[in-house]
Amino acid sequence: MARLNVKLEYALSCDGISHASNDVIDIEVNDEELNALRNLGTDKISCASVVKTIKNGETTLQSLHKQLEEKFYYMVEEYWLYEAYNEFLQESLSEAIEKDISSGIYTPMLLEEESDFDCFGKSWIDVDENECQDDEEDCDDCEDDENDADDDVKYDMDEYYSWVCEHDHEFVAERVGLNIEVCREDEANYTIFLNNQG
Question: Which of 63, 74, 109, 189 is most buried, taking the most CB atoms under 10 A from its CB?
Fold first, then answer.
């Protein structure tokens, strides 16, 4: 058994905007895989070289390639879920929170500053009942405001987003409006370094 360093590299240019992410990971290979890699005759082995070797019948590296593919796509998903700018994030989360509350899987935290509203220049909880009796019209306005506030509940979206991000990628993607399958459309790209084996 040996441990090798592998560099994962992702790059995409779309509408004049470049997107990129990379990572260096540590993997363990068995003796058969190590020998198959050494037989490629270089200390830096590209993903393309591994794929070509597999197509030529070297099945020893299939499992390793699949493992590295998954790590590459996981990194790409992480980039699009958490690093790339998502202009529809707030909109998607606003729709998702209603569904999660309705299904009972999420208990919302209300924003305190949004739950208070002014009436007679004071917050509703400070209004004197006798003061309302002195002006029935204003009192009616207070009741209308109270009903309107109930209809316009504001949730702590930061708290909700933090809760969403505690789940797996598929769960997060569904709530932030990302088609996670698109992250797997590009070919994997990695480089295995034989001279960094442990």
Answer: 189
In terms of Cα–Cα distance, which of 186, 158, 176, 192 is closest to 76?
186
Distance from the Cα of residue 193 to its chain's centroid: 29
Task: Single out the residue of 189, 157, 180, 198 nearest to residue 2, CA to CA.
Answer: 198
What are the DSSP calls for 19-52, one per residue? Answer: EEEEEEEEEEE-HHHHHHHHTT--SEEEHHHHHH
57 Cβ contact partners less than 8 Å away, ≥ 6 residues apart: none
Q: By the 8 A CB rule, do 189 and 7 touch?
A: no
Buried b (16+ CB within 10 A) or exposed e, 77-108: bbbbbeeeebeeeeebbeebbeebeeeeebeb
Which two three-digit tokens encode residue 85?
A: 């700018």
Q: Summarize pLDDT for 6-39 with one digit per residue, the tens.
A: 999 999 877 777 889 999 999 999 999 999 999 9
**Helix, strand, or coil (residue 156):** coil
Average pLDDT over residues 131-136: 49
Structure tokens at 33: 């895989």
Q: Are 103 and 95 in contact (CB under 8 A)?
A: no
The SS3 of residue 13 is: strand
β-bridge pairing 118-119 and 44-46: unpaired
**Tens digit of each residue's pLDDT (9 = 90 or more) over 47-70:** 999 999 999 998 999 999 999 999
